[in-house]
Design a protein that fits this description.
- By secondary structure, this protein is an all-alpha fold.
- It contains eleven helices and no strands.
- It is flat.
- InterPro entries: 7TM_transglut.
- Residues 3-183 form the 7 transmembrane helices usually fused to an inactive transglutaminase domain.
């Protein structure tokens, strides 16, 4: 979580808050291979955008439309799992249900941002979420770090002062330096 806070406060990558990259990272871990998790995330985002466009002419209220979209995405993903099992694709048939449920649940955030701020912002936040999640994935599977934390679990407490310092951060983010580089010169 501290790494995600660093990305937000120091670098300026927004993503979908602090919880979403964390849960996407866990979904990547549960999917077995990182590439399967990224593909699953991409499928969920593409289906969400497509269904949003298809349901727009119906002029439905937000929650019923969201419920329909999540149900349809769930059915499509379930159909892909059945298809993978039927044609003998181990990558699809052995996929854990947990990352699928997580990705489908995250569609609500994507759809909400898409409705409030547009598809472009939702896609940018999705990409930023994936970037942070992939980096966090590699940190979590880093064997050296795992060994250190198993031997010295109290080292996790050092994240508290780091988060405190991040909370007091008043400087510009790296993205702001890039954004305002002409003014800074």
């Amino acid at each position: 979580v501290t790494l995600i806070a660093i990305f937000r406060q120091v670098i300026g990558i927004k993503a979908f808050g602090i919880y979403t990259p964390l849960i996407v990272t866990l979904a990547f871990l549960a999917s077995g291979k990182l590439i399967y998790g990224i593909i699953l995330f991409a499928i969920a985002i593409i289906l969400g955008m497509l269904l949003r466009v298809l349901l727009r002419p119906l002029r439905m209220l937000y929650l019923p439309r969201l419920a329909i979209m999540i149900t349809l995405i769930s059915l499509i993903v379930f159909g892909l799992l059945v298809l993978g099992n039927w044609i003998g694709l181990p990558a699809l048939s052995n996929l854990s249900v947990l990352p699928i449920i997580i990705m489908i649940a995250l569609m609500e955030k994507f759809i909400a941002v898409s409705i409030e701020k547009g598809n472009r912002t939702a896609i940018i936040l999705s990409l930023e979420t994936v970037i942070i999640s992939v980096i966090c994935y590699y940190v979590i599977i880093w064997q050296w770090l795992i060994n250190i934390l198993i031997l010295y679990p109290y080292l996790v407490l050092f994240t508290l002062p780091i988060n405190f310092l991040l909370g007091k951060w008043t400087g510009l983010r790296i993205s702001e330096y890039l954004r305002f580089r002409k003014l800074i010169k």
